[in-house]
Write a structure and sequence with these properties.
The protein has helices spanning 44-50, 119-123, 126-139, 162-173, 185-193, 206-211, 227-237, 273-276, 284-297, 314-325, and strands spanning 2-9, 19-22, 32-41, 53-61, 67-74, 86-89, 102-106, 110-112, 153-157, 177-181, 198-200, 218-223, 238-246, 265-268, 305-309, 332-336. The protein is an alpha/beta fold and 339 residues long. The protein starts with a strand and ends with a strand. It is found in: Cytoplasm.
């Protein structure tokens, strides 16, 4: 089968950074589904894994953690899906990625593709939607019922990116006063169109901008950009007994003791935790993706697709990686259809 992979970790401008390859088509066993890949999306995790380093691979490393496709075969222990089902999912970091014509995935982390979306629109969603859902409802423990959140607020740092574009929608649907950070006209408009009631500029002090919105503090913070850079400001504006969640690793130590007097919580969200550690609640990702599909079919949540490249080739995937590495993308870039 056709696939895209790498042997060396190189700058994306190097044509050898991602190359077209041929590999054997895998066979599903256990709870695995063999999925015929129709569309894939690119996330920061792809560029981080592919980032230049001295390491070399003896067998090709295949990336890709956002998929929409059709079940081709099922393993003997599968009970959630059958051949012919249309699916979407984000996969696992501990297995080969999905930048290939066929892909093996544990059915416990797969959802039924939203019927109202095409494959490209669906492929834009799984990783970012799972991250946003888990962060808001599992890590920050926000109640789904809007009636319980009428006086509560959340600041989403990086509201126009892939995860932010879903988080603003989910938080707004949960009844929170959503403030997103954005600094350009197009990102401000995007954030507001996806559920942010207000926006502030992440290049300027948060506290004084919140005061202009008649807010001294916020109940929740979801950090999607530069945790260590924004740490002191997050400490300043989080409410007593508030909660902060981040998905961005730190590059220098942060002072957790600064949260002590506020009895505030700091928690990480890593979407791959359940699949990486085979947690007892791994099937929750299947349930979340199905719940999201229902919300999408009801037009309560919309896809964050902004650009589609076709076909799925190494050259187009390098283009998508370069766009993401530019730091200026809004929403998601998707690749569709192998030649």
């Amino acid at each position: 089968m056709k696939a895209i992979g790498l042997y060396r970790y190189l700058p994306i401008q190097d044509p050898e950074s991602l190359i077209d390859i041929e590999v054997d088509t895998p066979t599903p066993g256990g709870r695995d589904l063999l999925v015929r890949v129709k569309a894939i999306s690119v996330n920061p995790v792809d560029t981080k894994v592919r980032a230049p380093k001295a390491q070399e691979e003896k067998t090709p490393k295949i990336l890709g953690w956002d998929v929409a496709g059709v079940v081709e075969q099922v393993g003997p222990d599968c009970h959630l899906f059958k051949a012919g089902d249309e699916v979407y999912y984000a996969g696992s970091m501990t297995r080969p990625g999905a930048d290939s014509q066929f892909h093996l995935v544990d059915e416990y982390i797969v959802g039924h593709k939203p019927k109202s979306l095409n494959f490209a629109e669906a492929a834009a969603l799984p990783l970012t939607a799972l991250t946003a859902w888990e962060a808001l409802f599992d890590r920050l423990e926000i109640n789904h019922n809007p009636a319980n959140n009428s006086n509560k607020s959340i600041l989403i740092i990086g509201a126009a990116g892939g995860v932010g574009s879903i988080a603003t929608q989910l938080a707004s649907m949960a009844g929170l006063n959503v403030i997103g950070t954005a600094s350009r006209t197009e990102t401000i408009d995007w954030a507001k169109d996806h559920g942010a009631r207000h926006t502030i500029n992440h290049h300027k002090p948060f506290a004084e901008q919140l005061k202009a919105l008649n807010l001294e503090t916020v109940d929740y913070i979801f950090c999607l950009n530069a945790t260590d850079k924004h740490w002191d400001q997050m400490v300043e504006i989080i409410a007593p007994q508030g909660k902060i969640c981040s998905i961005v690793e730190t590059h220098q130590p942060i002072n957790l003791s600064a949260l002590q007097q506020k009895s505030a919580t700091f928690v990480w969200e890593f979407m791959f935790t359940r699949s990486m550690f085979q947690t007892s609640d791994m099937i929750e990702q299947h349930k979340i993706l199905d719940a999201l599909a229902e919300l999408i079919n009801q037009q309560k949540i919309k896809t964050t697709l902004t650009e589609t490249l076709t076909p799925i080739t190494a050259a187009n995937l390098r283009t998508a990686h370069a766009k993401l590495e530019s730091g200026s993308t809004i929403g998601k870039v998707v690749l569709e259809n192998f030649d």
